Amino acid sequence: MVPPRPSAVAPRTLAADLTRATPGSPVRLQGWVHRRRELAALTFLVVRDRTGLAQVVVKDGPDGRPAVPPEETTVEVVGTATANPQAPGGVEITDPVITALTEPAATPPVELWRPSLNASLPTLLDHAPVTWRHPAQRAKWELAAASLRGFRATLDAAGFTEIQTPKFVASATESGANVFEVDYFGRPAYLAQSPQFYKQQMVGVFERVYEVGPVFRAEPHDTVRHLAEYVSLDAELGFVEDHRDVLRVLRDVVAGMVTAIHEYAGGAVALTGARVPVVPEEIPVLHFRDALALVGAPEDEPDLAPEHERALGAWALEEHGSDFLAVEGYPMAKRPFYTHPQPDDPRWSNSFDLLFRGLELVTGGQRLHRPSAYDEAIRARGEDPATYAAYLQSFEHGMPPHGGFAIGLERWTARLVEATNVREVTLFPRDLHRLTP
Amino acid sequence: MVPPRPSAVAPRTLAADLTRATPGSPVRLQGWVHRRRELAALTFLVVRDRTGLAQVVVKDGPDGRPAVPPEETTVEVVGTATANPQAPGGVEITDPVITALTEPAATPPVELWRPSLNASLPTLLDHAPVTWRHPAQRAKWELAAASLRGFRATLDAAGFTEIQTPKFVASATESGANVFEVDYFGRPAYLAQSPQFYKQQMVGVFERVYEVGPVFRAEPHDTVRHLAEYVSLDAELGFVEDHRDVLRVLRDVVAGMVTAIHEYAGGAVALTGARVPVVPEEIPVLHFRDALALVGAPEDEPDLAPEHERALGAWALEEHGSDFLAVEGYPMAKRPFYTHPQPDDPRWSNSFDLLFRGLELVTGGQRLHRPSAYDEAIRARGEDPATYAAYLQSFEHGMPPHGGFAIGLERWTARLVEATNVREVTLFPRDLHRLTP
């Protein structure tokens, strides 16, 4: 079944390392046929691997010109490293023996070899397994992957413990709306809308915890910002004074994500033209009340409208030279029941939204920690605390003042590359209409 | 709502850092009342934080002896660092001012201050938010968290890209059995039993990928080894010669997990008495056919029984001094349809199981990569390749020879601490009977 392969004349050379190959030495390249250009006297072959592109020159031999498989076929190329200032990295491969590693590839749905991918969003998504191969598309995910690495590294260094909490839950976390129901061995269960309850409970164990994982929202609206499933970067920490301590950790986390992007995805930044922000030492903070006044909204407005957020983003940039602005003190009425009120005026909350370039990126804040406060807050919603018995165990048995935040990975990456739709930066988006590929 | 707190006379001191405090200097500790011992002339208070335990000596003052809140209440202790060779770390806190950070804690369902936690499994699980606070219990998860860190660090260093793939899928991945059905906006969807199809597709993009995340199995059997939801550590890589290349990467990954345990969870190893293995430079490999012969099983046996795995584990230890043994070549008939056959004898497969101390820990192997091979394999199952159209796109458009593996996090940790039931090392297990806490 498997074709014989040429004996390994050399260990595999990655495209990015070709530039360091000694001219005249044998090299062995493996990758995809990125581009095949047949000219009168020779064929130019560009091979793509995980590190970049390499040029292979195929000349006529005694039996004519060797066949080159069509684009996207995987190949092994054994040849000679040859200096050529015109080749990428200054080195190309000559006198190649080309072996296909699979059957000739079908023509891709989009031309992956073109410098930019001019495909409609439905085409991109319908053919995601193939369209993600385009270097500029793939680079978007590299920004996301580097960000995950920076998120974890920052929190690891700050004494946080990674947790993995269940996605099957007995009742809705945030609200009964938008929750997916599962047939769980013949009875109903739900998919967690966030790890909120679990990360709080684990503060009781580890003090500082984080989790990276999928969250599920049965979002009935078809918008450019919402998905039925997305990746949530959650953190929670105990022994805080108030939400400002949480915001300080968030600042360091976002700075760590930016550092990781520069360190591990510099090439992806260049390819996507991503606008990677500079994170200020201290993120400017505005109280919700002052934010309303600043944008000229009525003082009894319960929330910030998208145009308000945009105006605040512009203000933060002009006034503080910052791409980030934290709005604190959101009205208690608009926050979940576990939100801690502002001690001197309980109409407001010790919570915040972090705006990044005028769009909400993160929600966070201080949570209630006294059992009596939970009892009161749950009854005030007209609910029975017994419904939350499992969750409330932690508080009855001693919890510290604590708080945390959640970053939506897709929203973050979308903002970096200025994608208007989060689907452009999601490997396989799930929404009202899409369940495949 | 929030009680006034003593002004911060000193930045917070963590219990583990108390040993370095200058005697006579002011310290500020925060944590849980781990143990309160009232003696005739004084009260000994042990405070627990994320780094360990600290001793506080409470003596009678002018107004009698200060009240000490009950165990598990969160407190702030401001006092003086004082040398005492009998105290943990040689330093205790004297002249303390103790402030409770919440209401007096209810008595825990188990005595968390006892050196070992003698609770039944149902008690442990029913009260998980509190029982995980026990240092020896908590240490089990620290082994898991360190392992995750080692898994990712090893693969990051080897050029792998982290991916996050959807848990909502349109059809079952591995088989129609044991799949959870979700009401997905009024139509059926399923929860991914593994990221298998997606990680393969992403090999077409990144060559080398990994994913850490939940997988879902509607496991109808109530066993000590199965959960309805568990954490799968998946990796997949392209341009392999065969499954032996995959096994070599797996070896490095397991070695990296072990290194991370020693580096980040040394205290947890001591507390749990975990038997952390030494990973041999090369993991011994036995063909399935020879494994059957070795344990004296009939040569047409299609799988290894648990007692066979135990016998093989004992053999590997005796013969090779290894806690690990890879059994390769499992019969094709018992492996999933995407499994690559053994080139010289297609009754066998290019797949393996990694046994760790006589129990299956990892399944891995080489996958098919030619579109014609998929077409044939799917038809041989009596299925229509059109059902797999989204998945098959990758192969039609060029895939390299590739393979991968999946490690079950809970099985790994259970083996380290010799837990007989995976539930003992799962933060909030989910099974046939359990959906809460």
Automatic annotation (TrEMBL), chains A, B:
* Broad class of where this protein is predominantly found: cytoplasm
Any single GO BP term: aspartyl-tRNA aminoacylation
Positions with a binding annotation for L-aspartate: 174, 217, 363, 367
GO MF annotations, alphabetized: aspartate-tRNA ligase activity; aspartate-tRNA(Asn) ligase activity; ATP binding; RNA binding
Q: Tell me, what's a Pfam family for it?
A: tRNA-synt_2
Segments for region (Aspartate): 196-199
Where does this polypeptide localize? Cytoplasm
Subunit and partners = Homodimer.
- Which family would the database say this protein is a member of? Belongs to the class-II aminoacyl-tRNA synthetase family. Type 2 subfamily.
Q: What does this protein do?
A: Aspartyl-tRNA synthetase with relaxed tRNA specificity since it is able to aspartylate not only its cognate tRNA(Asp) but also tRNA(Asn). Reaction proceeds in two steps: L-aspartate is first activated by ATP to form Asp-AMP and then transferred to the acceptor end of tRNA(Asp/Asn).
What name is this protein filed under? Answer: Aspartate--tRNA(Asp/Asn) ligase
